[in-house]
């Protein structure tokens, strides 16, 4: 089955293309087990992490896509540990003294302010392409991530990152995060999908929610995204109501450890690839998608049956937390999957059958992102999808698009500054704080982010 495409092979002749902006793995990448409902994170709590290996794995994945002819961008890591938070809650003195006081008072607190979870750029923001927005600009809404304390620290620096890279207000609109209250709990693009005939044409945006903010929590694990969040973002982005859907995530999936929709579903162009238990009202969701897409495209729904891939296997292997891509020179979509999908018998057997069929997904490419996977983040977690055209690509304000030169610079930077290993107690080491600041100060020069990008640079 051949799918409609927008020809990413020659960017000079296309209207628009989908770029992926991956989060750079931070210097404090560790296994704190901080994310309730994320089974992989909980299983690996207190394990020894390998920050350098994680950063190099992430860069290698990004380079592979850039080498395939796709536009690949990068988002810088945040400063961690986040001392402004510790100062705000009463710790004082020198930076080293603040860190020591906080560790003595509550090591769990230091682990939260030292999280490198911002590496998962799919949670950074929700993005609506210009073709969908009433003002013709590309819109970003940074996620408030308020459900988890360690992630709720991220929104202001994410906004600063987006404003540094997408600074041209004639082309881009970067909003502030939604209000920090449970009614508007927002986890970003991990709960957002888009279907379209071509990236540069109007599409259908799908917001997936786990709970109604005015109702009661109905699952044992947190349902992190609210219905009201999607409604608010659709309004502020100026989306046409007829081309917006708000679908409820399956309670069964949340209870099984699918803390975000992108653990059970992924979409690209006209294709929705999902598990049988992705949506609470499965048939109703499919019918609503087909109605919304009517007149724009013929949507292809590739549903993976529970009988072939049990939900537990899909979540353990991150079968759906994959990148579904239109690769230059290929008539069918390519699925970028973690090595764990090859190692899991059920998912590997299913993927072989999928590729052998004449469906819209024609090839699977496996990548090693084990440092991310052990904390509960697959290839899709590491990227934020941004639809650009040549004008918008040329309007970017920082050195954030990966090419051979930037890749070499970043690999050398990682090798200079990142630790080989990091244990839970290493987060109390004041030297780690200084190492991080030295590295991040250099990174702002490499990526042309300005001299006041991080809190420590602003005093």
Structure overview:
The chain is an alpha/beta fold. It has a single domain (16-80, 115-458), classed as L-arginine/glycine Amidinotransferase, Chain A. Helices cover 32% and strands 16% of the residues. It is built from 16 helices and 15 strands. It has helices at residues 39-43, 51-67, 83-88, 95-105, 107-113, 155-165, 227-236, 251-255, 282-293, 311-317, 339-343, 345-356, 370-373, 390-394, 404-417, 430-446; strands spanning 17-23, 72-75, 125-128, 138-142, 172-174, 192-195, 204-209, 244-248, 265-268, 271-275, 300-304, 323-325, 333-338, 361-367, 383-388. The strands form five sheets. A three-stranded mixed sheet has the order 2-1-15. A three-stranded mixed sheet has the order 3-4-5. A hairpin with a 2-residue loop joins strand 9 and strand 10 (271-275). The longest helix is centred in the first third of the chain and has 17 residues, at 51-67. It is globular, with a radius of gyration of 21 Å. Residues 7-14 have low confidence and may be disordered.
By DSSP (H or I, 4+ residues per run), the number of helices equals 16
Which structural class is indicated by helix and strand composition? alpha/beta
Q: What is the approximate shape?
A: globular
Helix content: 25-40%
CATH class equals Alpha Beta
Residue ranges: pLDDT <50 for 5 or more in a row? 7-14
What is the spatial order of strands in the main beta sheet?
Answer: 2-1-15
Task: Please give the alpha-carbon distance between the first and last residues.
Answer: 57 Å
Topology (elements, then pairings):
Elements: E1 17-23, H1 39-43, H2 51-67, E2 72-75, H3 83-88, H4 95-105, H5 107-113, E3 125-128, E4 138-142, H6 155-165, E5 172-174, E6 192-195, E7 204-209, H7 227-236, E8 244-248, H8 251-255, E9 265-268, E10 271-275, H9 282-293, E11 300-304, H10 311-317, E12 323-325, E13 333-338, H11 339-343, H12 345-356, E14 361-367, H13 370-373, E15 383-388, H14 390-394, H15 404-417, H16 430-446
């Amino acid at each position: 089955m051949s799918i409609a495409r927008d020809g990413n092979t020659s960017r000079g002749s296309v209207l628009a293309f989908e770029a992926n902006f991956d989060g750079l793995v931070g210097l404090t990448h560790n296994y704190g087990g901080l994310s309730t409902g994320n089974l992989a994170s909980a299983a690996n709590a207190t394990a020894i992490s390998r920050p350098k290996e994680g950063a190099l794995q992430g860069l290698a994945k990004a380079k592979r896509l850039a080498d395939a002819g796709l536009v690949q961008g990068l988002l810088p890591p945040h400063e961690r540990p986040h001392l402004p938070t510790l100062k705000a809650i009463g710790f004082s003195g020198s930076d080293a003294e603040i860190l020591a006081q906080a560790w003595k008072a509550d090591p769990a607190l230091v682990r939260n302010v030292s999280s490198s979870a911002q590496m998962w750029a799919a949670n950074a923001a929700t993005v609506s392409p210009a073709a969908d927005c009433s003002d013709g600009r590309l819109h970003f809404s940074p996620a408030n991530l308020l459900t988890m304390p360690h992630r709720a620290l991220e929104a202001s620096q994410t906004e600063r990152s987006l404003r540094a890279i997408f600074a041209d207000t004639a082309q881009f609109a970067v909003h502030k995060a939604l209000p920090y209250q449970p009614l508007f709990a927002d986890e970003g693009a991990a709960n957002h999908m888009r279907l379209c005939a071509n990236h540069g044409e109007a599409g259908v945006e799908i917001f997936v929610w786990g709970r109604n903010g005015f109702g009661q929590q109905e699952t044992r694990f947190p349902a992190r995204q609210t219905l009201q969040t999607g409604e608010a973002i659709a309004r502020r982005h100026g989306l046409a109501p007829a081309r917006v859907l708000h679908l409820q995530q399956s309670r069964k999936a949340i209870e099984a450890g699918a803390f975000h929709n992108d653990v059970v579903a992924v979409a690209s162009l006209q294709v929705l690839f999902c598990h049988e238990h992705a949506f609470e009202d499965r048939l109703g969701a499919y019918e609503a998608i087909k109605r919304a897409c009517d007149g724009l495209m013929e949507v292809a729904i590739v549903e993976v049956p529970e009988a072939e891939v049990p939900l537990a296997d899909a979540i353990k292997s991150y079968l759906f937390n994959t990148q579904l891509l239109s690769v230059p020179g290929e008539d069918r979509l390519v699925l970028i999957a973690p090595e764990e999908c090859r190692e899991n018998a059920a998912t590997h057997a299913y993927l072989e059958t999928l590729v052998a069929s004449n469906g819209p997904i024609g090839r699977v490419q496996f990548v090693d992102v084990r440092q991310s996977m052990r904390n509960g983040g697959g290839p899709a977690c590491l990227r934020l999808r941004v639809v650009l055209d040549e004008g918008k690509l040329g309007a970017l304000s920082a050195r954030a698009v990966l090419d051979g030169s930037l890749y070499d610079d970043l690999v050398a930077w990682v090798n200079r500054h990142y630790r080989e290993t990091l244990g839970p107690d290493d987060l109390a080491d004041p030297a780690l704080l200084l190492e991080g600041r030295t590295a991040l100060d250099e990174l702002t020069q490499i990526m042309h982010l300005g001299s006041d990008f991080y809190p420590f640079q602003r005093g």
